[in-house]
């Protein structure tokens, strides 16, 4: 868990499908609360997954993919999320403790294939209808100086403090 949300989140992996539960007030402003399943990623690459299901604990609950500098609640990041009622959203935080900002919002909801990619200091979000052919989300490319080693992972926040939200992910790939 990032940002000490209550109740604590959890994750299980069964047959290639992740089930992640996370509570928390939000991923937003200048500090976050969510559940994060991650691994270190150094240099250029991509993280992709399909968000299969997502519970609606809030119209802007978030489930998706994040590249983050650390598990500090105020850490810089680049991410793409699906929400139950407000589309697919791309966000960034450029420095520790800075206010998170929206990069772009597009239509979509679970199930949805999502991808985040990094080439040098350029970060881009992608969507796909089949998990094979990827299309960059228009206006999602940004330049950020987040360092060479990032935490690449799956994210769930209920956007409803005190309530667990749940999402399932499959087709998870880190390249």
Short key terms for the protein model shown above:
175 residues, mainly beta, eight-stranded antiparallel beta sheet, six-stranded antiparallel beta sheet, 16 strands, 0% helix, globular
Short précis:
The protein has 175 residues and is mainly beta. It has strands at 10-14, 17-22, 27-28, 31-32, 35-42, 45-54, 62-68, 77-82, 88-93, 101-106, 112-119, 122-128, 135-136, 142-143, 149-157, 165-174.
Blueprint of the fold:
Elements: E1 10-14, E2 17-22, E3 27-28, E4 31-32, E5 35-42, E6 45-54, E7 62-68, E8 77-82, E9 88-93, E10 101-106, E11 112-119, E12 122-128, E13 135-136, E14 142-143, E15 149-157, E16 165-174
Antiparallel strand pairs: 1-2, 2-16, 3-4, 5-15, 6-11, 6-16, 7-8, 7-15, 8-9, 9-10, 11-12, 12-13, 12-14
Description of the molecule:
The chain has 175 residues and is mainly beta. The chain contains no helices and 16 strands. The chain has strands at 10-14, 17-22, 27-28, 31-32, 35-42, 45-54, 62-68, 77-82, 88-93, 101-106, 112-119, 122-128, 135-136, 142-143, 149-157, 165-174. Strands 1, 2, 6, 11, 12, 13, 14 and 16 form an 8-stranded antiparallel β-sheet that branches. Strands 5-15-7-8-9-10 form a 6-stranded antiparallel β-sheet, with no helix packed on it. The chain has a two-stranded antiparallel ribbon with strand order 3-4. The model has no long low-confidence stretch (mean pLDDT 97).
């Amino acid at each position: 868990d990032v940002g000490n949300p209550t109740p604590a989140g959890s994750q299980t992996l069964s047959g290639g499908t992740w089930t992640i539960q996370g509570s928390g007030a939000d991923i937003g402003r200048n500090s976050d609360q969510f559940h994060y399943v991650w691994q270190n990623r150094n240099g250029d690459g991509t993280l992709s997954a399909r968000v299969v299901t997502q519970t609606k604990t809030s119209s802007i609950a978030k489930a998706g993919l994040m590249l983050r500098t650390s598990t500090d609640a105020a850490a810089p990041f680049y991410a793409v999320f699906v929400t139950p009622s407000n589309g697919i959203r791309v966000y960034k935080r450029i420095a520790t403790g800075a206010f998170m900002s929206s990069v772009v919002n597009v239509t979509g909801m679970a199930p949805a294939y999502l991808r985040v990619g990094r080439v040098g200091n350029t970060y881009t979000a992608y969507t796909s209808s089949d998990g094979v052919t990827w299309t960059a989300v228009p206006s999602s490319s940004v330049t950020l100086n987040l360092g060479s080693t990032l935490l690449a992972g799956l994210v769930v926040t209920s956007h409803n403090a005190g309530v667990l939200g749940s999402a399932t992910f499959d087709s998870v790939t880190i390249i």
